[in-house]
Amino acid sequence: MRAQIIGTGSCLPEKIVTNDFLSTIVDTSDEWISQRTGIRERAVCTDETLTDLLTQAANQALERAGITAQELDLILCATIRGDYITPSQACVIQKEIGASCPAMDISAACTGFIYALDVAAGYFARKKVKKVLVLAGDCMTRMMDWSDRSTCVLFGDGAGAVVLGEGENLMAIQLTANGNVDVLNIPHVGGDSPFDKLPKSQSYLSMNGKEVYKFAVSSMYRDVQTVCDQAGVKVEDVDWIVPHQANLRIIEAAAHKLKVSGEKCLTGIENLGNTSAASIPIVLDRANTEGKFKAGDLLVLTAFGAGLTTGACVLRW
Ligand code: COA
Predict the structure, then answer these.
(1) What are the residue numbers of the active site?
(2) How far is the C-alpha of 102 from the C-alpha of 82, rounded, in Å?
(3) pLDDT tens track for 237-281
(4) 241 alpha carbon to ligand 1 midpoint, in Å?
């Protein structure tokens, strides 16, 4: 592959909601949430839009990459639901940051960032681009049924971004999809057509947590091995695993099966909750700004989500 990450950025909304606060809204407790998921608090949108979060993450990534928005050849945005059904969230951000390149959204739920990396890699392979902005973001808390304790405690809001430039550091990407609406879905928002005979449904997330849990652990285990094989590296040689942040127990169980030590798995779930496709670029950006990565470090990104989709990527820092 002909691409590498040359800048990272991220942004969270200001309001922090603790587990204790959630226990004043639904019948739950800090103990239940933190023991079952590792989540202690999450950032939640109040008056921020997804556009606000993504714009800040994008500008940060551009600044760190040392390029202007005008130098971008493509903008991809992984999101479940942008601020508008149309135009795409990527087009909205293109205007906000002052870019003039093509822009489009990628819909692959929590796996969206890795799907977007793969789409970008195709553009680099065809030599159509030199600089690509890959964004991921969602305001998940606006898609929750806040009377359903089994889902509303799990999610948070946020955005992440990377700028890709030419290079050889993206080594392999592995994607899967296994269509299944029942286990995890968010229905569409209805219009008010006088001809519409379909039942009106609320646009809330519903999920079979146990099924997703089993799927997540087994797919992470499989995908990390597959993508390492494709890249010609051994799992034990990987320096950092950057997993989708949905549940600490999922990350620990997959790491255990892979025989990877806990210190190699980067986590941020404790104060992020599940930020959907944004979770990997947010954690990546945090580790990058903390100076965790050394040049040459081997990273594996791995995600799963609605679809059901999964993806993994090997890259050299
Ligand atoms: N607070 C307190 N109790 C809760 C609760 C909450 N927020 N949510 C559910 N419970 C209760 C359930 O009602 C159930 O009670 P019961 O035994 O009396 O019926 C009990 O806790 C156990 O629920 P269960 O669903 O078995 O818990 P679990 O150990 O499977 O954990 C999840 C639930 C959702 C945390 C876990 O299944 C999970 O993380 N799944 C993956 C979800 C995911 O990653 N989604 C995102 C995909 S990108």
Answers:
(1) 110, 244, 274
(2) 17
(3) 999 999 999 999 999 999 999 999 999 999 999 999 999 999 999
(4) 25
Burial grade of 85 (CB within 10 A; 0-12, 13-18, 19 or more): exposed
Exposure letters 284-307 (e unless 16+ CB within 10 A, then b): bbbbbeeeebeeeebbbbbbbbbb
Residues 6+ away with beta carbon under 8 Å from 58: 9, 69, 93, 96, 97, 133, 135, 161
Residues whose CB is less than 8 angstroms from the CB of residue 228 and which lie 6 or more positions away in sequence, other chains included: 172, 234, 235, 238, 300, 314
98-128 residue pLDDT tens: 999 999 999 999 999 999 999 999 999 999 9
Closest CA to 120 of 167, 178, 53, 176: 167
Would you say 27 and 172 are in contact if contact means Cβ atoms under 8 Å apart? no
List strand residue ranges (DSSP E) for 170-297, in order.
Answer: 170-180, 184-185, 206-207, 240-243
Q: 221: number of CA atoms within 13 Å, CB side?
A: 15
Residue 230 — φ and ψ, nearest 5°? -60, -35
HSE (CB half, 13 Å, CA atoms) of 11? 23
Name the token pair of 130: 């030199």
pTM of the model: 0.97
Report residue 3 CA to chain centroid gap: 19
Ligand 1 site residues (CB inside 6 A) read 28, 32-33, 36-37, 110, 149-150, 153, 207, 209-210, 212-213, 216, 246-247, 274, 305
165-196 b/e (C-beta count within 10 Å ≥ 16 → b): beeebbbbbbbbeeeeeebbebeeeeeeeeee
Number of H helices, E strands in the chain: 10, 13
The one-letter amino acid at 127:
K
- The residues with which 74 forms a beta bridge, in sequence order, are 132
Residue type, 174: Q
